[in-house]
Amino acid sequence: MMAWIGAGFLILGAAVCLVAAIGVLRFPDFFMRMHAATKAGVAGAGLVLIGVGFAVPSFEIAIKVALANLFLLLTVPIAGHLLGRAGYIAGVPLWSATRKDQLAGVLARGAFDRPRPDAGVDAPGDGGGR
Amino acid sequence: MSMSGAAALVLATMVAGVLLAVAILCVAVRIVRGPTTPDRVVALDMLSLIGAAAAGLAVLVSGSTAFVDIALGVALVGFLAVVAFAGFIERGTIRGDDTGDAP
């Protein structure tokens, strides 16, 4: 029974990881990609580790899996927050359909030296194709 | 027909491995494509999370429980790398322009 639960968690976690990676690939904007990587990414990795904990029923593995999940939940949001702040300050361009920039005037925003005039912002619906 | 739990676990491990491989491909395309440094760092963060999940799968493939510690280590290294890159990006000295104050 534990093996069945573990198998379900493994497939669920890997599927969430795949969804997060597709989000990182296809979202049109740096900040949206950051949301995909930090939210769905930590959920996927955590679910896979929980699946391992169910598949290998031992107390040691359970403790280690719980610690790894706690560590992921503590650190990944911090890394995402730091990276979003740094990207905004560095001046990464927002998506062209952005309606509201609530950080305008709050954080100093630099000019990013871009290789192309519209680099970093893909056309809506294009999904990042070059 | 019914499946035993061990067989279901082997099948689930294989399916999860294939899904994680496709995820790594998607992230690799984003790393190559960019177009800015923060985009690549976000993809690196996602890559370290997928690496932690793959290390978890390696426990079931190899039978060695030491890979759980490796998953923890990969997550730690990814976190430190992203924090360091965020500092570089915020200070602007990794962009290669002439506004950096490097000696």
The total of helices of chain B stands at 3
Report helical residue fraction of chain A. 55-70%
- Distance between the first and last residues' Cα of chain A: 48 Å
Beta-sheet strand percentage of chain B? under 5%
- Low-confidence parts of chain B, pLDDT < 50 over ≥5 residues? 94-103
Low-confidence stretches of chain A: 115-119, 123-130
* DSSP E strands of chain B, number: 0
Rg over C-alpha atoms of chain A, rounded to the nearest angstrom: 19 Å
Biggest beta sheet summary of chain A: none
Helix content of chain B: over 70%
Main beta sheet of chain B: strand number and arrangement? none
Question: Total number of β-strand segments of chain A?
Answer: 0
Summed up, the helix count of chain A is 3
Mean pLDDT of chain A comes to: 82
Order of helices and strands of chain A: HHH
Elements of chain B, N to C (H/E): HHH
User: Biggest interface and which pair forms it?
Assistant: A-B, 67 and 59 residues
Multimerization status: heterodimer
Which descriptor suits the 3D outline of chain B? Answer: elongated
Structural class of chain B: mainly alpha
Structure, explained:
The complex is a heterodimer of chains A (130) and B (103). Chain A contains three helices and no strands. In chain A, helix 1 packs antiparallel against helix 2 and helix 2 packs antiparallel against helix 3. Chain B is mainly alpha-helical. In chain B, helix 1 packs antiparallel against helix 2 and helix 2 packs antiparallel against helix 3. The longest helix of chain B has 29 residues. The interface between A and B is large, with 67 and 59 residues.
